[in-house]
Design a protein that fits this description.
- The structure is a homodimer of 346-residue chains.
- Chain A has 346 residues and is an alpha/beta fold.
- Chain A has helices at 38-45, 64-71, 88-98, 117-132, 174-183, 197-207, 209-220, 233-236, 244-249, 270-276, 341-344, and strands at 4-9, 56-60, 78-82, 104-109, 113-114, 136-141, 152-159, 162-169, 186-196, 223-225, 228-230, 255-260, 264-265, 287-289, 292-295, 301-304, 308-312, 317-322, 325-330.
- Chain A has two domains: 4-265, Spore Coat Polysaccharide Biosynthesis Protein SpsA, Chain A; 270-344, no CATH class.
- In chain A, the strands form four sheets. Chain A has a five-stranded mixed β-barrel.
- In chain A, a hairpin with a 2-residue loop joins β10 (223-225) and β11 (228-230).
- The longest helix of chain A has 16 residues, at 117-132.
- The A-B interface holds A 19, 293, 295-296, 304, 306-314, 317, 319, 321, 324-330, 332-334, 336-337, 339-343 and B 19, 293, 295-296, 304, 306-314, 317, 319, 321, 324-330, 332-334, 336-337, 339-343.
Chain lengths: 346, 346
């Protein structure tokens, strides 16, 4: 059996984790949950296991040196430098074009957290088997709350280890999210995919022919420099960017999902980070990274790169100090951090 | 008619306004409400008015240079350097001993805010008249809420412009404070006093003879250096420190109070400062000193000496950044700031 080819996407900006996540060092490259960065965790998840080939990493030029530094000494690993940020469909297509047509690619974001790597690998094996049968497979993350910030997948007919996808649902409102959760038919769309690379390119050519053509031209005109591959910029910058969901998944008749209950979080806000760090909380639910004195506080997250934080009487507040910036937000407000003037105008 | 002699006490530490108020530069010497410091405001309150003589300032050696710098060029002003912090009774007695026995002294804390100086001066005139008749006069601050952080004065028989004090009450609990407020018989004890200096010293000698003797020895053995007077340390450090309330006011039969409704605040916490700055608040009740971006916030106070503050979703929170410290507290929690490790162990 041929190995699975991990494709790790490093395109996100992560402004909702400002002021720690910044343009120069965005979320994937930060040690938010442990000594390892999220990108390093994503690499380790598909390493030291014969079932996985060396990874292909797709990133922008601004972060190429960060990627190489954190990638370390992985034999055979490749870095594809996107000439421009064009969302996930072109990024995935670049990687697909560099692989044999019969390779199965496992597309993983670099900025998510997965607590249970065993469950992840089990789902990856199931997804791979479906991808070999030319299904386009999305991981369906087990929903445990009526989240309004994610897209949802609705299960259809059972397949081997998974389900056909009956429906893709955009971010719902609260009432619909609660109904989805209660029905048991819906999973979150976590942005993790398995494809046979040739099949993915064929499907892209069917639904987004111009994008497929420009990606192919860009790869044909590209050049390598050691582990780095530089697609030609001139065709690539002409691409009308789009997500793989919009460009392919929502159009194909071969969409499938594999359920995955693996302690997943997109660490999409400081509140989400606090949730992911819950096992490090003290008896009052407080989590401190850095130095802090908390009096009469509960469910407070402190992340400070220097100044000592003193707090009194707070409940459910996130406090983040980084460089010259101080952020204080409620958990509910954490979703709006990326729209703050200082986060936008970095 | 002889002038009133202002005596301005600079002994407080103001740790509840940490991290801005620190040992080296405590609360009286900070521009908390305007460009002027609280001490400068206290000076101005009794300046440029023929009814007031030049002030006597009482302060510790650590703050003598701050006092002189902020005192500026006030002809005849004197600074008495306390050899040790012994609470208000010895500090007031030092000043009394430096004045003619028939002088009326008006004792004022240096770290309070008074919005209405006209009302203050009117109360001072009334208090002075009573002091000339050998009453020991306390300003009774009009209570406007059931405050549990202050002592209360209970009115007795009417006197010219004031009342005899029937009772001194320690900081009450909430239920008693509400009863006091409802009764209309109680005022806050604001720590502002008028005495005839010779009478004050006689009363001190009656109730605290050892303290009176040691103060007298300390003054007799002291020396001047320009505007500064240094009482002898050796007797002074032996004094068992006490407040003027405990040492004299609660023991005398001549205690009187003059009602004063003058926009008084002891600026005893960040929440109290926010109240005193209410006229500078925006439409959502937010007050910003420094740079801040506030989204969905109300009744938030920001004081920053440098870093820009970004906040989302907060209600009734005080945020203070000073030097290497960051403080975040609820309004209710503000009373506990002085007990934080960083405030205690400066």
């Amino acid at each position: 059996m041929t190995a699975i080819h991990p494709v790790i996407l490093c395109g996100g900006s992560g402004t909702r984790l400002w002021p720690v996540s910044r343009k120069a060092t965005p979320k994937p490259f930060l040690p938010l949950l442990s000594e390892e960065t999220l990108f390093e965790q994503a690499l380790r998840r598909v390493a030291q296991d014969d079932r996985f080939a060396a990874p292909i990493v797709v990133a922008g030029a601004a972060h190429a040196d960060l990627v190489m530094a954190q990638l370390g000494d992985v034999p055979g690993a490749r870095l594809v430098i996107e000439p421009a940020a064009k969302n996930t469909a072109p990024a995935i297509a670049l990687a697909a074009a560099l692989l044999p047509r019969d390779a199965v690619m496992l597309v993983c974001p670099s900025d998510h957290h997965i607590a249970n790597n065993t469950a992840f690998r089990a789902a990856a094996m199931t997804a791979t088997a479906l991808a070999r049968e030319d299904y386009l497979v999305s991981f369906g993350i087990a929903a445990d709350r009526p989240e309004t910030g994610y897209g949802y997948l609705r299960c259809g007919e059972p397949l081997a280890g998974g389900f056909a996808i009956r429906e893709f649902v955009e971010k719902p409102d609260r009432i619909r999210a609660e109904a989805y959760l209660a029905s048991g038919e819906y999973s979150w769309n976590g942005g993790i995919f398995a494809f046979r690379s040739g099949h993915l390119l064929d499907q892209l050519a069917a639904f987004r022919p111009e994008m497929a053509r420009l990606v192919a031209e860009s790869v044909a005109g590209g050049h390598s420099d050691g582990a780095r591959f530089y697609p030609a910029a001139e065709p690539f910058v002409q691409i009308a960017g789009d997500s793989i969901d919009y460009a392919v998944m929502e159009n194909t008749s071969r969409a499938a999902m594999v359920p995955a209950d693996m302690g997943w979080s997109d660490i999409g806000s400081w509140a989400a980070l606090a949730d992911a760090l819950a096992d490090q909380a003290d008896a009052d639910g407080n989590i401190v990274r850095g130095q802090a004195d908390l009096a009469h506080c509960s469910n407070v997250l402190v992340v400070s790169d220097g100044p000592r934080i003193s707090a009194v009487g707070l409940e459910g507040i996130c406090i983040v100090v980084s460089g010259e910036d101080v952020l204080i937000t409620t958990r509910d407000g954490a979703q709006a951090v990326g729209k703050l003037p200082r986060a936008v105008n970095q």
